[in-house]
Every structure is written in C-alpha cells, then in structure tokens.
C-alpha cells in the first residue's frame, strides 16, 4: 500500500524546497519531498514503517526530526544519506536486516536522543560506532540473535545515556567498566543472553547482583546453566581472587603424599639396614668369641708346655 503524504506537510516542504533551491547545491541524497511509501508530517516526522523497503529511503526532508523505518528489510544505513539529517532526534530502525554499523554511520547525529536497532542481524559493535552520539539518552539493541560482541568502549562517550537494552542477543561477556562510569546510566537490560559465568565476566556478575531482573542467567559453563548471573557473582568473587587455585591444592596433596611415601620408604630402608647391620655385628661378635675361645685353648696349651719347661728348669736347677 502506498501512503500519501499528509496535506499539512505541504507548505513546509515548499519552504524547504525554496531554501534548498537558493542555498544548497543539488545533492543526490537530499530532497524536499517525502520519500516513496513514507508519510511525512509538519512535525518533521517521517513514518516509513512496514513498507517492504529494502533500502534506506531517499528524498528525506533535510530537517527530519523523527525517522521511523521499522518493520522493513533494509540491509544498510548509508552514512552519507543519514548524516545529512543533523537535526534527527529519534531514529527507529527496529526489525530490519542490518548486519553492520560502521564507524561513520552516525558521524553527524549529535542531537539523536533515541536509537532503536532491535530485531536486526547485527553481529558486533565496534569501539567508535556510537561515539558521535553525544545526546543519546536511550539505545535499544535487543533481539539480534547473532550479536556476540560489544567493544568495552562502545558507549564510553555517550555521556547522556540513561537506558541501554541489549536483551536477547548472543552475548557471553560484556565489559561494563566504561558503561557504568557514565554519569546518567540508570537502566541496562541484559536478560536473555547466554552469559558466561566465569572469571572473564566477574565484573558484570557482581554489578548485576545489585540490579538483578530474573532472566539474566548463565549460559556457560554447563554446571551453572540457568542459574542467575547475579547469584553466581558472589561465588566468582571468591573463586577468581583466590591466591590458591585447585591446581595448587592438588599440588599440595601430591607433594604431601610424596613426602609421606618417601618417609615411609626411607624408614623401612633404614630399618632393614639396621637389622642387617645388627646381624652382621652379632655374627662378627660370635666369630670373635669363637676366635677367643680357640685362642684361650691355645694359650692354655702354651701355658701347660711352659710350666713343663719350668719344671724342667727346676729339675735342671735341682740337678745343678
Ligand atoms: C517485523 O516486520 C514484519 C514485516 O516486515 C512483521 O511481519 C513482523 O511481525 C515484525 N516483527 C516484529 C518482532 O515486530
Ligand atoms: C552465538 O555464539 C556462539 C559462540 O559464542 C555461536 O556458536 C552461535 O552460533 C551463535 N548463535 C547465533 C545465532 O549466531
Ligand atoms: C574492561 O575495559 C577496560 C577499558 O574500557 C579495560 O581497562 C579493562 O581491563 C577491561 N576489563 C576486563 C576484565 O577485560
């Protein structure tokens, strides 16, 4: 169905046309009309929702403040066309086929306060993507089933950000250090992601504990699946900061056993040596005793022969 522009937008568009004709050289991306299949009103709202669009609408009024292109199949936000809309405050791109947002996509949208990128096919968010959006208050980026990576500094410069929703994506970790340092942040939707409940996600789990909303649960490792991220956070804090890990404990158990075994074996060896030594000593003593006995027998004989001699001497002395 083709929607006709509302008649009330007519005088404004004529004015813009006049201004453009005199001041701005012609450009392929700006126009004074209303894009095909869109409705433009005098409140500078351009409504193009659910029009089976596959490309970003052309001929957008330069002064557009609200642009709604949701429920289409738009695959790309062209930076050039988008950045002419420097007065844009509200941009709803939900339910399209966006796979990528480049660093320059939002380069000139300094007044943008509301951005909806939900229900797309984004896979990752880079460092500088939202950097220029100095007035951004609310960012909805839910239901991108392949979105698994958000750069730690992706929101670092969005000083006005109050509400961020990244629910129902494919996120496992999310470094929130720079996000929670923002002065205005008051709500972050995290539910429905397969969060990692390991040390790499400790900061998030501890922070979630304060704001838990129920559906923010662990996706891995297997033994924590389905448990609330905030609940696991307390355990992670002790687990991740232990100076002794489980390997250290295993090491001590093994070392303890080795020392015990070595002690037992050495005691046994010592015992054997002592017994053998004792036996040897005993044997030697016996031998000595036997030698002594033999010796004493011999000395006995010697003594008797000597006495015989003495007798002889006596006899001789007698005879002398
Ligand atoms: C997305 O848009 C299509 C039409 O393009 C519509 O049928 C569908 O219900 C929309 N989905 C959501 C979640 O809004
Ligand atoms: C989600 O991420 C995991 C890896 O972390 C990947 O294996 C899976 O295919 C992703 N799911 C989707 C729908 O892209
Ligand atoms: C999180 O990101 C900040 C920079 O924004 C970095 O300094 C910090 O080391 C990161 N934390 C983790 C756990 O990776």
TrEMBL record:
Domain LRRNT, first and last residues per copy: 33-66
Pfam families on file: LRR_8
Membrane topology: Single-pass membrane protein
Ranges annotated as biased composition (Acidic residues): 288-297
Predominant cellular place of this UniProt entry's protein: membrane
Signal sequence, start to end: 1-26
Alphabetic keyword roster: Cell membrane, Disulfide bond, Ion channel, Ion transport, Leucine-rich repeat, Membrane, Repeat, Signal, Transmembrane, Transmembrane helix, Transport
Transmembrane segments: 249-277
A GO CC annotation given for this chain: voltage-gated potassium channel complex
Subcellular location: Cell membrane
GO MF annotation terms: potassium channel activator activity; transmembrane transporter binding; voltage-gated potassium channel activity
Protein name: Leucine-rich repeat-containing protein 52-like
Protein species of origin: Neolamprologus brichardi
